[in-house]
TrEMBL record, chain A:
Gene3D superfamilies: Quinoprotein alcohol dehydrogenase-like superfamily. Residues 1-23 form the signal peptide. It comes from Swaminathania salitolerans. One of its GO terms (cellular component) is membrane. Residues 95-703 form the Pyrrolo-quinoline quinone repeat domain. Residues 23-64, 78-112, 433-454 are annotated as: Disordered. This is Glucose dehydrogenase.
UniProtKB/TrEMBL annotation, chain B:
This is Glucose dehydrogenase. The keyword Membrane applies. The chain crosses the membrane at residues 12-37, 43-61, 68-86, 92-113. Keywords: Membrane, Transmembrane, Transmembrane helix.
Amino acid sequence: MRKPALFAATILGGMISTSLALAQVPPSNSSPGEDDTPPSAAHQEGPGKFGAPSPYAPQAPGVNAANLPDIAEIGIDEIPTAVPQRDANPAREDWPAYGRDSNQSRYSPLDQLTPQNVGQLKRAFIYHTGSKPGPGQQNKWAAETTPIKVGDSLYMCSAMNDMMRIDATNGKEIWRHKAGVKYHSIPYTAACKGVTYYTSSTVPEGQPCHERIMEATLDMRLIQVDAETGKLCEGFGHGGQVNLMQGMGESVPGFVSMTTPPPVVNGIAIVNHEVLDGQRRWAPSGVIRGYDAESGKFVWAWDVNNPDDHHQPEPGKHYSRGTPNSWAAMTGDDALGLVYVPTGNSAADYYSAMRSDKENAVSSSVVALDVRTGEPRWVFQTVHKDVWDYDLGSQVTKFDYRHADGSVTPALLVPTKRGQTFVLDRTTGKPLPEFPVVEKPAPSPGPMSDDPRAPTQPYSVAFPRLSFPDLKESDMWGMSPIDQLYCRIKFRKARYLGEFTPPAVDKPNIEYPGYNGGSDWGSMAYDPNAGIVIANWNSTPMYDQLITRRKADKLGLRPIDNPHYDPSGGGAEGNGAQADTPYGIVVSPFWNQYTGMMCNKPPYGMIEAIDVKTKKVLWSRPLGTARANGPWNMPTGLPLNIGTPNNGGSVVTKGGLVFVAAATDNQIRAIDLKTGKDVWSDVLPGGGQANPMTYEVNGKQYVAIMAGGHHFMMTPVTDQLVVYALPDKAQ
Amino acid sequence: MTSRSRPRRLGDWATLALALLIGLFGLIFVGGGGYLASLGGSLYYLICGIVLIASGGLMAMGRLLGGWLFLLAWAGTIVWTIYEVGFDWWGWLPRLFGPTLIAILVVLSLPVLRRQDTIRPVSRGAA
């Protein structure tokens, strides 16, 4: 009878599970395990211990994809006075920058689409970027692209950095610049969030390269083409390109890369780059650099461990290794002459004992750099001694904050993965008095005696938190009592002291909020007229554990520049070798790895509207249905509004609508700004993990979303930009 | 009516299968729940698991009491669910959806168990 009973259990289990709504979460190939090998003290012996390549070693062939010569420096005073840029004061019907305007507000003054008529929205056209995984290529795609729109054209990049101009009314390609990025240059993800529209300060109107499209590439080039023709701007860099690997020292393709549009502030193009997480302590530098947007010549560097030298390293030298990298989109401020840099962590995210004081002062922070010198004017830190990968993924948004007495302060909205949202005075970097920041005790020093945690962490106590309360055992979930029991055991086996539970070797720790947010790169939308912030966020805890070097070796964790590197063994968001330190790291979602369901109860993703004036939540609701999610990654088809993990931001319009995709249900929806209710939705051909945008041509309002999907979010990858508008008769 | 020593009707087979399923769940509950309790977690699974093993065992022996024990565990689970999560619908799903389906099957098996229970002494005598 044993067999029939088991069979019955299987049938029953299957019956129960298919009727349930479940969330989709990222994959992992290993669950944390313990290893009683005592931690080695090798890190005290310096960077050479684990056989790291010399940072002075020449860059491997292909790192500098274009084989570009070095670029010369130019003095700040030799730079021509910048002309006003399109994004400083965008035309009503345009979307000339990643976040629409130089405030990065993601607010559009268009109002043809309203809650009343948006239900009639139909697809106007689909444009194919042509970039998706080829035969035999591992799926590392997540285009994450937001087109910009100027005049009657859209300008965008493909996931592999081709730049395109397309007719904004019908999707016809006008030109394409082939960037020639190779597959091996893809770091963790092939993404290109957008391009920059730059108006030249020296080339007169009507001549080539008066208006330019600029992008930063996965293989570390800064490229400018003529907006009209797509031809390279010969006057920029070497034939239109600048090699950003200059001064980076030893590296391999895919170790450092760029995925965000570089802002131009008072004529200076500022570039940051992603350094692949989890590889080694002495990874290439996270240096931030300013270039003359006109000529491509180098102006300054901000090199964290070498703060007084703003020049390029001499030949054979390199920027300081392992410093915090900044991969999120930066925000420029022409009036204050600043660029706001959202920083991440020093290399080797989960172990902080080898970081310098200079690094500890600026990691997981917003750093306001003077665009003339590269010198920090102020720093606001969101996490002290971060070992949770709580780097700043969001682009900060500028806005004018009106105090009760009527005075106005130029302010900065700083979303974080922690779900804490800081509101700063952007002249000083200090929190606005209305949004005080309180240092609250955090678990410290923690179990790693050589790597104590900070005693306190900052909280923005007046801004509604974008997170749920700490987890309890009774929050564990599943499709039956049995997998709920499994998750309860997993919960009890971990160390969990609430937020900021320190990672350790002896047992796993639960990281909640997880490194996917709170808020991540989708950032926030801000309606300046209504004073309303739109924020979507995640509730997806992670399960982390430090492992000894021996165990890391056993798991096959090697850094990307190791000849025996196995890309499937650990990526930026998963297990990492953390070479040059005593410990590797295993990271997975806090989930039931047998069913692929998160261990915590839903919702896993939310969207809400917050009134900045009253600090009240106007509405808050789960984002994303269970239609494309389920146990064992089977779609349930259920319209249950479970709230799925989400990646990508929103747009808010004067018409009173919020457009957002982001969720793993592969839908784009319009939400009524007043009520928070869906008033329209459409199923996309792929995952909508991108920020949507909206524009108008010939009196018709369009909404565009890149349905590029996301490999990590396990949504279908496509090369399709989907654009909607009202049918002609409905306008 | 020639032999009552082993179940022969469809209802009897189904009830036995249900009994073994409940017993299996009980074993998993006792094993996992015991471990959970040793980690300082909820005692519910351990206690419920013991009741489920008893329930499944008695049902397999054709005892009506086994069915009632399951329904008692089910009722207790409702009380425990309210204690743990109140009326949060998502919280009810894992705790009660599957068990309620089984409870319906148990209710359906009650007539079978009642018949088996009344003829039990006869079948035991015949064995």
